[in-house]
Amino acid sequence: MDDPILARPKPPAEPDGAQSLDPQDWEALRTQGHRMLDDMLDYLEGIRERPVWQPAPEAVRRRFDQPLPRHPSDLESVHEVFMESVLPYALGNAHPRFMGWVHGGGTAVGMLAEMLAAGLNANLGGRDQAPIALERQVLHWMRELFGFPTGASGLFVTGTSMANFIAVLVARTGALGPAVRARGVAATGTRLRAYASASAHSSLARALDLSGIGVDALRIIPLDHRHQMDIRALEAAIVEDRGAGFTPFFIAGTAGTVDVGAIDNLAELADVAQRQQLWFHVDGAYGALGMLAADIAPRLAGLERADSIAFDFHKWGQVPYDAGFVMVRDGALHHDTFATPAPYLGRGQRGMASGSPWPCDFGPDLSRGFRALKTWFTISVYGADHLGQAISGCCARARYLGGRIETEPELELLAPVSLNIVCFRYRGDASDKLNANIVADLQESGIAAPSTTTVGGQLAIRAAIVNHRTADEDMDIFIEATLGIGRRYSARNWRHHDE
Ligand SMILES: *Cc1c(COP(=O)(O)O)cnc(C)c1O
């Protein structure tokens, strides 16, 4: 630079050793850092050789019941604790035979991107910086994927629980006007009503709780025989509530229910919302990204008419935790629900404080990590089509598993395999207890890790295929282990009968 006033200053003398947290020896840190990276790559490369899960022994649990360390330890020995006491006793959702709940598998690419984000230590609350441009790029991709207009806003959040909460707040502002932010819902004297199906996720009820509207404002609509929200019952409930002095404001459809993987009829829900002038939200936590898969996208018809969508990149998007996203059709309303002026957050036309609006204007968080980076890397490296194939593949594995269950007389499918979730049981006496035991035994064996749910009043063994690593052979291993454990319990019961 020619300007002598603005020339780069000379580097200072050594920083105060007692203050700085940088290493004394960068070479040693570099060597140790490469070792740590290799350890995690080894973990992912060899994941099939590991048990899915094993409970942490008492000695390991005690390892995390220590007083606050006052003195330093070297990185190498702290990392050793991680390798010995944390890594082997994680839940194991990176493993191809983890099938519990709805957990994503992650990728090595996502892990590497997360390291870059941590090194940069970017705070994406706001201000003028390329990381925010990158987050907007992901928003633009999502608008394109979901057929949303250019005015639609979007925000990375922890997960769909937070995304559902944000959607409820924006819909509330839409129904009652921005003044509700100052006065609160109660002062308006309005008794709001929201609607979701009997298999909607519990985070929707919690969103109504957190927003101060109250869980009782959520009216649960029964399911029809396809496990979808009963549309006629929904419309009747809205009419009835209006007659009783309530103010209906919000319909939440689900694209991929947690219990059986059903997709609500989104187009019909959009019609009802339009006729009744209500906000149409879709909880697409894992299912919405089915838009990436050619065979699933048609079943999501109507999603493009939603007022808001909540979904997770950390489930079917295979991005490491956490990476949820909320998208709102009316970006201005979204902004007006959260933007809060503060003198220390003033915006400028130039300098670092430019680039308004900022992400902090669209949600409750001010400081925000760089979740967008691992998502951008994942989409850029694999491409949308390959990610879509991973999603289709999960559904194919689920169909294969469902087919195998149908050919085994000892097993019974409890719900049709609609997407990627398979619910079944081992037939036998005291079937609920038997199946709960089978699931616990499977988990403790480390061979496979399904979870449980209830379908039609019966306890089900539930397998959700969300992991890109899962193959048909994993389904075979899972079925053989289930049959083996089930037979052993049945044989034991027979012995008890004889005694
Ligand atoms: C996982 C899930 C949620 C909750 O999402 P988080 O990311 O765990 O907060 C909500 N709804 C559905 C349908 C889900 O599958």
Number of strands: 11
- What's the arrangement of strands in the largest beta sheet? 1-7-6-5-4-2-3
Distance between the termini: 94 Å
Poorly predicted tracts of residues? none
CATH architecture of the domain at 116-339 and 352-383: 3-Layer(aba) Sandwich
Order of helices and strands: HHHHHEHHHEHEHEHEEEHHEEHEEH
What compounds are bound to the protein? pyridoxal-5'-phosphate
Gyration radius, in Å: 26 Å
Form type: globular
Describe the protein's architecture and organization:
By secondary structure, the chain is α/β, with parallel strands linked by helices. The strands form 2 sheets. A 7-stranded mixed beta sheet has the order 1-7-6-5-4-2-3, sandwiched between helices. A 4-stranded antiparallel beta sheet has the order 8-9-11-10. The mean pLDDT is 96. The site of pyridoxal-5'-phosphate has 14 residues, from helix 6. Pyridoxal-5'-phosphate binds next to helix 6.
